[in-house]
Model the fold of this input.
Amino acid sequence: MLSKDFSTSRVVIVDDVVANSRLLESSLKAFGLRDTLSFSDSAAALDWLRHNSWNLLLLDLDMPAPSGFDILRALAGRDRSTNPIIIITALGDTANRRTGLELGANDYLCKPVDLPEVILRVRSNLQLSHASMALQESNVLLENRVRERTAQLANSYGSVVRTLSRAAAYRDNETGNHIRRIGESAALIARAYGMDDHWVELIRQAAPMHDVGKIGIADDILLKPGPLTAEERTLMQTHPAIGHAILSDEHPSELTNLAAEIALNHHEKWDGSGYPQGLSGEQIPLSGRIVAICDVYDALRMPRPYKQPWSCEDSQRYIHEQAGKHFDPLLVAITEGLYEQIEALQRDLSDLAQGG
Done:
């Protein structure tokens, strides 16, 4: 008897001689296979096989069109391990056997058949089918678990990002809405530049950490109300490297990698006069060039203890004037088409709305 596990396996028999298919079907049922289906019309069989699920096909070759060879060709795209085919035919010569196997058959039996051997071959191929399906189901389950775990890790990284961003903002007397605006405006520019959705989402989450290195700057420098001395300015200009060091890790994620890149490069300038490395042009990573514009524009529009907020017209004029100097000219041109949306962020994520 076949295993109980195979009792519900769907076995299809295609043979234009009805007596042959009835003999095979009754033999399979006698050995416990209850779900068998026979076709003497090969065209009807092919249509059914294409639109229904099955575990094993017992196929004759020498039939009116479509022949068994035609059916093998039509089913060439199937998964051979999940949907095995056993040829059972009177065409037992070497050439036909080789052709059938080359066209995708898993096994080959010559008529007249030995029924015990048929049962053994059927059992072997059903074992292959069930093992393959079990493996596929296991792989799907594993992939789902990996996706869930990846999402959990991404959420964890996102929580760390938001915590670090808030810590840096409060350390510098900034607001949570300021860092949110940097992330949202950076995403706007990245999308308009043509970056894919994945990268746009990464920069949305990473950009708010641009100033995390200010955590390492002394209060008397960071919170000084007046101008900094040359020595104090030099110390202040170490915050990109500090931020990069904070965000770098032995086992980084895409998010922390991009955040570290932004922290290090958002004070670089297109003409090479920025810090900490004096990079110029496209030596500056795209992420740093984008956040540089977002950070400066938002800082101009924000009130500070030492200045009133600039108007949107004056702020936009300044960004335009700095194209090719401080900022990437192409990104400035892109940003100029986004000011309506960026100003909407200023309203929707205003510091007054936060009570800051």
Summary: Residues 172-354 form a domain with the Hypothetical protein af1432 fold (CATH 1.10.3210.10). The radius of gyration is 35 Å. The first helix runs from residue 18 to 30.
